[in-house]
Structures are given as structure tokens and as C-alpha cells.
Amino acid sequence: MKRLIFLLLVIVIGYALFSASVFLVVGDGLHIMLAWNLFLAVVPCFVGFSLVKLRQDHPNAVIPVFLVWMLFLPNSFYIVTDFIYIDQSSFFIPGAMYQPGEYLADFASYLAFFHILLGALLGVFCFIVSLSYVKRCCLDLWFKRHVWLAIAVICGLSGLAIYIGRFHRFNSWDIFNFVRIIEALVAEISWFTAFFVLSFGFIQFFVYWIYAFVEKSIINDKKSEFSD
Question: Which residues contact 104 (CB under 8 A, 6 or more apart)?
Fold first, then answer.
């Protein structure tokens, strides 16, 4: 775990430096905010690590810290939504009818794209790491045979939180303004809300399921090698 914590700290610092460099080239404040977004994406990892220790030493504190983890988990996948800031005109000029378009080799645009892409991948990585630790130290014990149903619910709630964060601009710590959040959500709820929440919930669940499937397959293959 210490190696993983050290790796995450290096990633956050390295990405922050990269963000500053991209900002100097591109001149868009978004790339400074991405460093902050990645920091928030790493927070549920550290909270998840703490749950492992708390379960052994302070079991009464597990549920409150688990709820804190739930509040910050959506930040990990939230960075994926920053792809909306990519401007197609910076990469491609459509051609006239029956004529090919022109792809632009613009350094600043691709630098910005790679920066967002790296942040999104790191956010997904943090989501997988965090959920893996919490699954093993909490969910497997609490829900046993229904653990995947619990994960589906967590992913659905995370999808809802991502929607609230993107469209209503609330943060994890705004839970203390719970009434305002509910009022804002109810005032503008629509079919798009359901589409967005279910889509992001499914994507998170699918990504983690793929990871768990591959991990289990690798472990089983290793067991087979040793048994042979």
C-alpha cells in the first residue's frame, strides 16, 4: 500500500506540473483546474486506504468514513466529462460535399487533448483502485453474495453525483447544502437527466467489471500454472 500511496502522490505532483506547462502553452485556465480535479480524484483512494486500517483498529469509524468515501468517489470519473471542452474546429475542417475534410496539425490543440486524456485515464485508474480497496475491506463483508448489486448502486449514485456536479456545479462538500441540491435537481429533472445518470452509472460499473474479470482470470491462470 505504501508504494501505491507514493505512486499516487508522484502522479498528482507530476500532473500538476504538466498542467502548469500546458497552461503556459495553451493559455486556457481549464488546464489549471484539471490539476485540482485530479487531486480530488485521488482523495477517494486515500479514504479507501484508511478504511482498511480503520476496520482493524477503529471499526466504529468505518461507516462514517465509508460515507465520506462515497461523497468523493464521483470525482474520480468526473474528469471524463472535461472532454466537452474540446473544440472540433481546432482539429478538423469539414470539406464540401463529396470532398474530404482537412485534419489540422495544431500543436497546442493536441497538447490540450492529451492533457485531458491523461487526466481522464488517471481518474478512471483512481476509481478502480479506490473501489477495489473498499470492495475488499467493506463491501465483500457487508453484502457478500449481493456485492455486485451494491457496486451497481454505488455506480448509479456516482453517476447522479457527476450529473449534479457538471450541470448544477455542486461539489462533494456541498452535501451540507443538501436541500439546495435536491431543489436544483428536482427543478430541472428531465429524460436527459435519467439518460446521463444511467449512462455514467453503467460505464463506471462496466469498467470496474472488466477490471475485476481480468484480475480474476489472471489469478485463476496463475493458480492453474502452479497446479500443473
Answer: 90, 91, 92, 93
Cα 7 from Cα 38, distance rounded (Å): 14
Rg (CA), the chain: 20
Q: Which residues pair with 93 in a beta bridge?
A: 102
Number of structural domains found in the chain: 1
pLDDT tens-digit readout, 170-221: 999 898 888 999 999 999 899 999 999 999 999 999 999 999 999 988 877 6
Q: What is the pLDDT of residues 138-173, one digit of tens each?
A: 999 999 889 999 999 999 999 999 999 999 999 998
Among 147, 137, 144, residue whose Cα is nearest residue 57:
137
| Number of neighbours of residue 47 by Cβ within 10 angstroms | 22
The answer to whether 92 and 102 are in contact (CB under 8 A) is yes
Which residue range forms the structural domain that includes residue 21? 2-227
CA distances 31 to 1, 39, 116, Å, are 30, 13, 8
